[in-house]
Q: What sequence folds into this?
């Protein structure tokens, strides 16, 4: 069986962009947290049209979403290895979420999996697949 090498950030970003351009959909919801009055408020990024996901890809639902998206590709689900997914830029920042081998296999088997993203810009998101 061929051993898959983990993707570095550049390879992942390229793969994510290509996946989005091929019709991948990611839904992210919910950013909580506040900002200090001395910190300038970033200009909101206009929403990107939601493309149709490629066959086998799974889009996440993201709590308190403000423009993020996240997709695990069909190839990543088939490989069944642990993966770190980067949420797309939303409101001037990004987050990532790490899924274990077991969690990837659960998503592939249509079991609901929720994970908290990294904290950036003073908040995190709950990222849910299935």
A:
């Amino acid at each position: 069986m061929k051993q898959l090498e983990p993707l570095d950030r550049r390879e992942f970003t390229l793969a994510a962009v290509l996946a989005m351009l091929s019709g991948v959909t990611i839904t992210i919801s919910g950013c909580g947290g506040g900002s200090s009055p001395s910190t300038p408020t970033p200009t909101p990024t206009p929403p990107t049209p939601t493309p149709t996901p490629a066959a086998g890809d799974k889009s996440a639902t993201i709590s308190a979403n403000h423009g993020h998206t996240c997709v695990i590709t069909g190839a990543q689900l088939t490989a069944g290895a642990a993966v770190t997914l980067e949420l797309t830029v939303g409101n001037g920042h990004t987050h990532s979420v790490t899924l274990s081998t077991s969690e990837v296999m659960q998503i592939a088997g249509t079991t609901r999996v929720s994970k908290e993203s990294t904290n950036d810009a003073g908040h995190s998101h709950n990222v849910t697949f299935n």
Summary: Residues 9-29+53-129 form one domain. The longest strand covers residues 58-62.
